[in-house]
UniProtKB/TrEMBL annotation:
GO cellular component terms, A-Z: cytoplasm
Protein name, entry field: Coproporphyrinogen oxidase
One annotated GO biological process: protoporphyrinogen IX biosynthetic process
Species per Swiss-Prot/TrEMBL record: Hemiselmis andersenii (Cryptophyte alga)
InterPro entries: Coprogen_oxidase_aer, Coprogen_oxidase_aer_sf
Amino acid sequence: TMRVLSVFTLAGLIGCCCAFTSPPSVAKLCAAPAGWACGPSSPRVGHSFSARAGSVPGGRQLLGGLKCSEREEWEEFVLHIQKDIIQKAEEADGKGKFIEDRWERPNDTGYGITRVMEGGNIWEKAACSVSVVRGKLSKERAAAMSSRGRDASEGDAYFAAACSLVFHSASPVVPTFRSDVRYFEVVGGDGWYGGGADLTPYYLYDEDAEAFHRFYKGICEKHEEGSYAKYKKWCDDYFYIPARKEHRGVGGIFFDDLASLPDGSSPMAFAKEVAEGFMPSYLPIANKRKEEAFTQEQRDWQLLRRGRYLEFNLLYDRGVRFGLDGQGRTESVMVSAPPLIAWRYRADPEPGTEEHRLCGVLAEPREWA
């Protein structure tokens, strides 16, 4: 499933979910599964799902060199980054406010909060989600992992924590933005990071796409020389609609299975910097375009393009499909859907128009950076 547990796959598994802070009622979720005990070296056992467990003298080394405190650090990071994203989005929008939907998985296996804004000035719908879950690998997922060389068996315990967001703009000249970061580990096996960020414009401003890609190229090259090109291609390849022979947007970056970096630096640090760049990479574009006038014809085009966005989610996104097969929270899985969409028979743009130019770029990705 998109390299087993990738962008929306993890979202489907845990319901594209979110958690801002572990509510008191969720404290019982924090007990680690058997074999995952953290010792007194874990400093934040007051609320952390990953750290509340019986102690092991001196702490226990887990999962490819990671300590329990590092898993806990990632959990706390995604909680923090969600809060930061919500604050920045509400300040920028000036009208919309995010509601909270707190939830718990059955059998004390996870918690989260889905946060959604609807009817804002800039964003017609925006969602930012965090989740922290654990469980046991199914036969299918274990087989998929094993096919990629990972040591995984049916019934192995896993831990996963993720932050994901999607912002659907009210104006057709402001692009839609989707991004996520996630961490997944298997008891006694590997732990790895994944994530990405991509832009879906309805009207193409070359300078905006270039600035967006340059932003993430800078982060990628800082942590691993040459990584931007492979992460960009991965993004282009994944967000593709075969039936339409076009890509969903102008792309960005997409990475997965990141357990180490060539120079020995921390993959967690890279994933954190990607997440910290979500709003700085997107808000300048949204703020620059939000006051621009648009016509009803442009709005109609936006709704048609949103139809393609939903086509990808429902037909090709492996995580969404997995979630809708009964493994995830349907409301949280579908929170990424645009608020309003349209389909029109043979809605082909006239040659020479801006709509036609966009379609040309979606058919053949550019090297923006």
